[in-house]
Amino acid sequence: MRIYKVGGAVRDRLLGRPVTDIDWVVVGATTEDMLAKGFRPVGADFPVFLHPKSGEEYALARTERKSGRGYGGFTFHASPEVTLEEDLIRRDLTINAMAEDDQQNLTDPYHGQRDLEARLLRHVSPAFAEDPLRVLRVARFAARYAALGFTVAPETLDLMRQLSESGELQALTAERIWKEISRALMEDQPQVFIEVLRACGALNVLMPEVDALFGVPQPQAHHPEIDTGAHTLSALEQAARHKQPLTVRWACLLHDLGKGLTPKEEWPRHIAHEFKGLKLIKAVNERFKAPRDCQELALLVGEYHTHGHRALELKPSTLLELLQSFDVYRRPQRFEEFIAACEMDARGRKGLEERSYPQADYLRGAATAARSVAVQPLLEKGFKGPELGEAIKRERLKALKAYKETASI
């Protein structure tokens, strides 16, 4: 029995990055050998075990063969005869196909270290094209390591393009796709994830609504970058730069989908794009079974982001309707995330990344003013039922009028 550290732990150590998860591969052992040493089996499809003390995953060296469509369409073979090199060749990228023993002696049969130095994401073997999930994984790695200068090797991008055109991406489950998307959006440069998907044709397959934004112009006075797709990527980049949560990043990606529906003869204006985009946002949400908080914020930001930008001009009644739509009284955090998404949208414009966004504090102040209305005095006056609701609304409107006058002095 020989045990090796493999994959990401080796890659990140060589890059000088923090090592979080460690995976191990065991060569020359059987399931019985592992059980005898106290390892606990957890793999349903192939032999994976948890270490009795550390809880880290140890997998028996294995080979795999394509037997069906999609990510799960493989049969695996694990035995003591499978070599380390045979196990490593089934991995996706050369930089993930390195192993080291307990003395940190490197086994690198597919030149992963060379590609680390060249800053290349390159596939290990033609078997790469058998697993459609790898299109998303490589795009995610590109987003993670973009700051270090990594790019996707042209021949790997060609294989990703073939996979995108093959129909295999449609065989992936919504859950698997969302897992990759959500992880990629939380990388330091999530816009690179979208760029790589677009470069290999996968964006048009998975999110044609986002792909349709590229090449669609906007008024230069408001959007110096002009292209709607470029603006969407910039807003996403700003969301990552400002350490926004997944909900905000997802909303930034989808907020302008309605602009992809504008007839060319109406370009570069996009009248009512906020409402036109809602059905597209809903479709993307449902396609990937996005978590409820992501779905809700994306729809609200899609519908109301221009209200956010025009906050200082809104009438008190419109401002109240906006606050009611977000249920700021019971869900203040969601409104805070809406404000953040609006700010990232405003900053996601060429040359305006550092411009202040006074609308943010103004909206926060409006929410505070509306929330300050006390219900108890109205109850004491005898209001109840629908009448109470109307009385609360009148008092909140009064508070917003007073706030607007104070804020504009």
Number of strands: 11
Q: What integer is the average pLDDT?
A: 94
Give a short account of the largest sheet.
Answer: 7 strands, mixed
Specify the helix fraction band.
40-55%
- How is the largest sheet built, in terms of strand order? 3-4-5-2-1-8-9
Count of individual helical segments: 20
Find the structural class using helix and strand composition. alpha+beta
Strand residues, percent: 5-15%
N-to-C terminal Cα separation, in Å? Answer: 77 Å
Shape: elongated
Radius of gyration: 26 Å
| Low-confidence parts | none
Strand and helix layout:
Layout (H helix, E strand, L loop, with lengths): L1 E5 L1 H8 L7 E5 L3 H6 L3 E2 L6 E3 L6 E4 L1 E5 L7 E5 L5 H6 L9 E2 L5 E2 L4 H7 L1 E2 L11 H13 L5 E2 L1 H13 L7 H12 L4 H10 L2 H5 L1 H4 L16 H14 L4 H9 L18 H4 L1 H10 L4 H18 L6 H11 L5 H16 L11 H13 L4 H5 L4 H24 L1
Parallel strand pairs: 2-5, 10-11
Antiparallel strand pairs: 1-2, 1-8, 3-4, 4-5, 6-7, 8-9
Helix pairs in contact: 5-7, 5-8, 8-11, 11-12, 11-17, 12-15, 12-17, 14-15, 15-17, 16-20, 17-18, 18-20
Describe the structure.
By secondary structure, the chain is an alpha+beta fold. The protein has 20 helices and 11 strands. The protein has a 7-stranded mixed β-sheet with strand order 3-4-5-2-1-8-9. It is elongated and about 80 Å long.
Concise structural overview:
The chain is an alpha+beta fold. It contains 20 helices and 11 strands. The chain is elongated, with a radius of gyration of 26 Å.
